[in-house]
Design brief:
By secondary structure, the chain is α/β, with parallel strands linked by helices. It has helices at 2-8, 23-36, 40-46, 57-64, 93-97, 116-125, 139-149, 156-166, 170-182; strands at residues 15-20, 47-51, 74-79, 103-110, 127-131, 153-154, 189-190. A five-stranded parallel beta sheet has the order 2-3-4-1-5, sandwiched between helices. The two termini are 29 Å apart.
Length: 195
């Protein structure tokens, strides 16, 4: 929520590390940056999306050191960063000394956590977000809350039923709730029978 608040007020960090074993929030935040930071007209020159298995830290840094063209920001979004060799992350050390304030680096490192030493360095100049798996007993309440954010009203029994059948895969739950939203009227309370 704090990252979204900062995003909406353009109070942005020069680097974001989105890490952890729960990919749902990592993907949601990455999509927010990709789809909403820059206008469509600014994206061609100022938005670069890299994939960890195809690129290196050097590629990330080269893109991050460029200045924006006719825009306030330049976005370098790194997806699947867990595929980058662990020993290469130390190449960021010099960049941390003098980060370019108009470049926003978003690194998505899923299913595991980057080394603590690297995270401490990022935390000094940027933002670290760790997305942890939710416990099974918290899934029904999460389902109710997420349903509200997309405009659905569901009964508590419904959220428990969804949790029982879908488990703690937040992406799957969000996808099923989105499908459900297409099939109900605005303001309608979703019941077990509809599920």
């Amino acid at each position: 929520e704090q990252i979204i608040t900062d995003f909406n007020t353009h109070n942005l960090s020069p680097i974001y590390i989105l890490t952890g074993d729960e990919p749902f929030y990592i993907d949601e935040l990455a999509n927010k940056f990709e789809n909403s930071l820059l206008d469509e007209s600014e994206k061609d020159f100022n938005q670069t999306i890299l994939y960890g298995r195809d690129k290196s830290i050097d590629d990330i840094l080269v893109n991050a050191k460029q200045y924006p063209i006719m825009s306030d920001f330049r976005l370098v979004l790194v997806r699947e960063a867990q595929d980058i060799d662990k020993k290469d992350w130390s190449k960021f050390d010099k960049y941390f000394d003098n980060p370019i304030k108009t470049s926003i680096i978003v690194i998505c490192y899923k299913y595991k956590t980057i080394e603590k030493a690297f995270l401490k360095k990022v935390d000094k100049i940027g933002t670290v977000f760790e997305s942890k798996k939710l416990y099974d007993n918290t899934i029904p309440q999460w389902t109710v809350n997420y349903a509200k954010t997309i405009g659905l009203n569901i009964q508590p029994q419904v959220s428990q039923l969804i949790a029982d059948y879908l488990g703690n895969n937040l992406e799957k739950i969000a996808n099923e709730l989105s499908k459900l939203k297409l099939n109900v009227k605005d303001g309608e309370i979703i019941t077990i029978e509809q599920i």
